[in-house]
Amino acid sequence: MTGCGTQDDAAGGSGAQSAGSGPVLGIRPSGDETITYDKAKIKNEDLFKVFDHIDENIDQHVVNLQKWIQQPSISNTGEGLQESAEMVKGFFDEFGCQKTQIYDPGENQWGSQSNPVVYAKCDEGAEKTLIVYWQGDTMPVTQPDLWKAPPFEARIVEQEPFKKVLIGRGAQNSKGPEMTFMNAIRSIKAVTGKLPVNLIFVVEHDEERMDIGLNQFMKDHGDLFEGAEATWGPGASEGCVFVELTTSGDSWGRGPTYSDIHGSNKRSVDSVAWRHMTMLSKLVSEDGNKVLIPGFYENIVPPTAEEMRILRKQAEGRDLEIAAKNLGVARFISEDPLTQLKMARMGTSMNLDGIWGGNMFAGGSGAIMPNKIVSKHNFRYVPNMKGPDIVKKLRAYLDQLGYEDVEINVIGDVPWAKKNTNNDLSKSNAYTASIWGLGSKPYSPDDSILLGGGGGYWPAYLFSGNQSSVNTPISSVRAGTGGNSHAANEWYVIEGAGEQLGMASAEKVIATALYTYAGLNGEIPEEFANPEGLDTAE
């Protein structure tokens, strides 16, 4: 694929495949879906041609995703990151973007080395320019024996109610949705020769490390985003500050000071491990659900009336037993659907993500007294809380308790962000959702104004004028789905079922959204205006 890149469906350096000459996976574009688009609301004939092209090439589109899944890109270990960055750059080179580059942001503000950031600018001669945010990294595979297919094979399997889903690390978080976007714009360009909007891509490989490299990149290269009117991203984001707590015999002045020692010495030697566990027990309530750090809950802004309206609507008919089963948990903290949703979407927490030291070998025995214990913790926070303030309060509380020797290492901080929804991109995405029968009128998806959406952070703050010069509206509309992010058997739907759309339909939704945002799919009805909006957060 060379030149201006008007062909479609090249994947990571392979040549384009025309319909009928590519791989044969037997993907049914509409699967067992029971909803589809309202043809009367498609005002641009090119969109019908794009939809046909997607259907004809859906097997190759799935292969495109499989090839990306098969390339590991694990930010916490460094495995495959440079290769992934080169592969992603190849997507944009083949697409015909005028500028593509891999950046090394260098050492970041938290004192660690950043992972690569891929940048691409695709000038299509359109009136509007859209920033597209991606993450190229994934979490490690921590429980390989629990996977029903190898995590980097990208196998397609049946999983009720879906006849075909793709199993693989990164399938849902976030290579599946991102390749769906890439397939959509490739199809548009294959049919029409150009996109309805200009695109600026930024792809980080540090999302699972608190976006530490992207933070540095956006501070240093804000000029690369000049002229962009909006950002394609999940919308609002909760805050998250991630820390490591370390207790060592050397700092404490008791217990093993240089290395681990034989466990029989516990009879006469103080334990670093028990000290650390006792310290942790004082940071949260006995059930782990309330943070005991003095002042932790200060400054919290309660949900607005509109946010509570959305939560109440989403809680209607919600079966917590089914929701818990789908998540892979025994039950939720609360048995009330509204309370559970409020906690999940807009709550705060201190989590114990991991702890290590001493004998870390599965099975067997081996008496060891560790000289050092390290635990990882993420604090989820909401407006108007601040990550550095939480760390300051944690330090003061540890000192008050007599744990002055316990070290706090801040891995990174992602401030919360909450954007105004009264803008062209939010309105066009809401209308696109209506065209496809997704969500409820007049705003869809409703989660766009709830912190965390489904319960997670992303670096929205860097596109909201906080710590960078880029300040744009943020919105997206996504129809594809998956699950088990950060867990075994991560999956992404290939063939949809019922009201859940599969990959081909999800690509069509993106194409519809881009044409609608560009003003090439008729007028957006007035009912999708949001005159009140939501206040932009800092």
TrEMBL record:
Question: Which region ranges are annotated with the description Disordered?
Answer: 1-30
Per UniProt, which keywords does this protein have? Hydrolase, Metal-binding, Protease
An individual GO BP term: proteolysis
InterPro entries in UniProt: Cyt/Met_Dipeptidase (IPR051458), Peptidase_M20 (IPR002933)
What domain of life?
Bacteria
A GO molecular function annotation here is: metal ion binding
Q: Where is the signal peptide?
A: none
Q: Which Pfam families match?
A: Peptidase_M20
What the entry lists under Gene3D superfamilies is as follows: 3.30.70.360, Zn peptidases
Please list the residue ranges that the record marks as compositionally biased, kind Low complexity: 7-22
Q: Which PANTHER family match?
A: BETA-ALA-HIS DIPEPTIDASE, DI- AND TRIPEPTIDASE DUG2-RELATED
Q: What is this protein called?
A: Peptidase M20 dimerisation domain-containing protein
